[in-house]
# Entry
Amino acid sequence: MSVGIIIVSHSARLAEGVVELASQMAPAEIDIIAAGGTNDGTIGTSIEKVSQALKKANGPDGALILLDLGSAVMITEMAMESLTPEERQRVVISQAPLVEGAILAAVEAASGSTLQEVVEAAASGRDMPKGDNN
# Structure
């Protein structure tokens, strides 16, 4: 097993794209689940999609959730209420940037790291340079 990763976005296509990119960068099989868009395919978030992703990705090693925008946090927290206290302890909502965090988390999870190590790897995405700042 390894730490699972859940991508929560207001856009299904964005979530799926982040999963596709992170999966390409991770050299091993890990659960990276997209939970994007609403149930009817529009922009928004779905408690059902997040709940399903939590069931798939929250194994014994835990799961890291990366989000795009603020209201995704509310939906994710609501979905987590359906988990047992033990299951909730194995889930972390990341403050990391979505794309960079997902890639770094996927690579770290693929190496068999602990949930805390995956959380820290994702968080390091905040410091990734994106070119010359001059």
